[in-house]
Write a structure and sequence with these properties.
Blueprint: H1 11-22, H2 42-48, H3 58-66, E1 70-73, H4 83-88, E2 91-94, E3 100-102, H5 107-112, E4 120-123, E5 134-145, E6 151-161, E7 163-166, H6 174-183, E8 190-193, E9 197-202, E10 208-215, E11 218-223, E12 237-240, E13 247-249, E14 255-260, H7 265-271, E15 281-286, E16 290-292, E17 295-298, H8 304-307, H9 338-344, H10 352-360, H11 368-387
Parallel strand pairs: 1-12, 5-17
Antiparallel strand pairs: 1-16, 2-3, 2-4, 5-6, 6-9, 7-8, 9-10, 10-11, 12-13, 14-15
Helix pairs in contact: 1-6
């Protein structure tokens, strides 16, 4: 672990810093005294792009089933559970004043209160013994500007794994882990983990061209043929990280992955491989033991699973330990358009071009969208080049 440069750092200050560093494992963004769903910009986004109430049609269902990702778990992991059957059915729902709404919560009850940012669902573990793992699938469509000036229409198949709780990263470090283990269960930092989503991006021929995954409070996009390859059956495969549940492209054996809480400029430089690890950073660890077979289920995009404005887990005292809102509150409002998320997530550690574009935009006082603007043509070029098996072109 990288130590503080100052020998005069007092233990109280170090203790606070350790708490801040622990937030690496927290995927749900937080704002003091209010839910992240109330962050400025979300309301305007969902007015402009209201969630649909439709389930996938027959053709979409076929695509979702065909391209469902392979999911690998570490030793002893419970695996994905059913959101309503195994999680919501075992808990209580209260309003913002703490008044009981229901101690027998159903999908209908949760949806009735999905627009209340003060509502709190508290899961009561121990009453569920799921026998069949579940992932939730949905399909969206996005447009990216092609290199010839036209529009490339892409399908994005998103699969959410639902975990009962989220723990801290396995590579937290002995000092941080030791202090925090006195305060809380490192395996149960907050209830519910549903931002663990793998999005398979399909090209015009409905073949996978990219995988986008949520890792903590940022997104990472991997291109097929560059940094990820399909399995023998044509499906993409992901590993679930030890304790934190973060998703990474499947690799055999123990793999250590750099991780930060947010991609602020300094943290982004570290993730790009420009600087040494900052104190407020840690490592995820994947070490897949087994592939889990799961049932694919579907909910409409306007369901409470995606749109709940309250807390879908117990409210707890330490920073970052509150339950998250719905799964659609997965990133900053400015990045909510799916095309922006795909582009924003396309960065490669050590890539000189990515580093230069970052330094010319976000790293030079711009915002995240300035990086997106510079990175979009590169992503499109590389997708097109890989689809041609790099015949007559080179990756940028």
């Amino acid at each position: 672990m990288k130590r503080s440069r100052s020998p005069w750092l007092s233990w109280p200050i170090l203790f606070v810093a350790i708490l801040c560093a622990a937030a690496v494992a927290v995927k749900s963004c937080s704002i003091p005294d209010r839910n992240f769903s109330q962050y400025e910009g979300f309301r305007e986004h969902f007015i402009a792009y209201p969630p649909k109430s439709d389930l996938p049609n027959a053709q979409e269902l076929a695509l979702l089933k065909r391209h469902r990702p392979k999911l690998f778990l570490p030793v002893g992991h419970e695996g994905p559970i059913g959101f309503y059957a195994d999680y919501v059915a075992h808990g209580v729902l209260r309003d913002g004043k703490g008044q009981l709404i229901s101690d027998t919560v159903t999908r209908a009850i949760l949806n009735k209160h999905k627009d209340d940012p003060g509502a709190v669902f508290t899961h009561k573990p121990g009453g569920s013994n799921p026998t069949t793992p579940v992932m939730l699938g949905r399909i969206d469509r996005v447009s990216l500007e092609a290199s010839d000036g036209g529009q490339a229409e892409l399908k994005v198949l998103t699969y959410h794994a639902v975990f009962r709780s989220s723990g801290l990263v396995a590579g937290l470090g002995s000092v941080k882990a030791g202090v925090l283990s006195v305060l809380a269960d490192l395996n149960d930092w907050h209830q519910l983990d549903h931002y663990t989503a793998a999005s398979v991006v399909l090209g015009p021929d409905d073949a996978p061209i990219a995988l986008m995954v949520q890792q903590h409070n940022y997104i990472h996009t991997y291109l097929v043929g560059e940094s990820i390859e399909p399995a023998d059956d044509g499906r993409l495969a992901v590993d679930v990280a030890i304790r934190s549940n973060e998703l990474y492209p499947h690799r055999q054996g123990r793999v250590v992955h750099p991780a930060v809480r947010f991609l602020d400029p300094d943290s982004f430089r570290y993730m790009l491989g420009v600087t040494d690890r900052p104190f407020l950073a840690a490592e995820d660890v994947t070490d897949p033991e087994r592939e889990v077979e799961y049932i694919l289920k579907f909910l409409p995009p306007d369901d409470a699973f995606y749109t709940f404005k309250g807390f879908l887990g117990e409210r707890r005292g330490l920073p970052g330990r509150d339950g998250p809102p719905g799964a659609d509150y997965n990133t900053l409002p400015a990045l909510k358009p799916l095309s922006s998320q795909i582009v924003m997530g396309y960065w490669r550690r050590g890539n000189k071009g990515d580093i230069a574009r970052f330094e010319a935009s976000y790293g030079n006082g711009g915002n995240l969208l300035s990086f997106v603007a510079g990175q979009a043509p590169v992503l499109v070029h590389n997708i097109e080049c890989l689809r041609k098996a790099k015949s007559g072109c080179e990756l940028r």
